[in-house]
Amino acid sequence: MIAENVKKTLAEIAGGNPFGEKVTLVAATKTRTADEINEAIRAGIADIGENKVQEFTEKFDAVIGARRHFIGHLQTNKVKYLIGKTYLIHSLDRYELADEIEKRAAKADWTADCLIEINIGSELSKSGFSLEEGADAYQKLRRYPHIRIKGLMAMLPLSDDEAMLKELCRKMRALYDSLRREDADIEHLSMGMSGDWKLCVENGSNMIRLGTSLFGPRIYPQTL
Ligand SMILES: *Cc1c(COP(=O)(O)O)cnc(C)c1O
Questions:
Q1: Is the pLDDT of residue 222 over 90?
Q2: I want to staple 67 with a disulfide (CB 3.0 to 4.6 A). Which of 38, 87, 108, 166 is the partner?
Q3: Phi, psi (5° rounding) for residue 202?
Q4: What is the pLDDT of residues 133-163, one digit of tens each?
Q5: Cα 176 to averaged position of ligand 1 atoms, centre (Å)
Q6: Could you write out the three-class secondary structure of 59-84?
Q7: CA atoms within 13 A on the CB side of 210
């Protein structure tokens, strides 16, 4: 089932987005076993994303291949476990986190590729810079010597209001385009989950993070 879902989704995004860009599929692997993740990789997944450092670390060696993304909220005291191990951190959402990544990455003589997280729906439950802060945050964050800003990440609010969601995508795309015009390192707009990825890709996303639609519903252990 996982392999079928992966192949079907890869075929659906094979044509890229309307902006002529390739769409990268990141499998969101929280709560999934290494066996399930390896099955997805054998079916064609090249990028996987965890949203908890503990899971990222526990499965790191058991998962074979694939570029490792970190997509969840990152506590500063856990940054040290990711140094040298991530292809991309999607959740750079505050300066305090950038300070810690800078300190740890410098010590390891490594550069962390990161996306700036934008709280596009201005939701209290989500972190990130506001859309209005985005350009200024980019100017400040790009000055950290061991952080390379590669683009933007956002999570759309849960809503059936397609017009509103499209408008939020368009705003994200406009910010992304404005950064990209002056910085060739900017190449990822990470936006889209199982419920909304088609709308996101149609409206400018070039990186989607899918969990449920690849692996089925998540079952969280009681203790979490
Ligand atoms: C879990 C998760 C996803 C995937 O969510 P689904 O709805 O299962 O596709 C995407 N992005 C982040 C940051 C996540 O934590």
A1: no
A2: 87
A3: -60, -25
A4: 999 999 999 999 999 999 999 999 999 999 9
A5: 21
A6: HCCCCCCCEEEECCCCCHHHHHHCCC
A7: 27
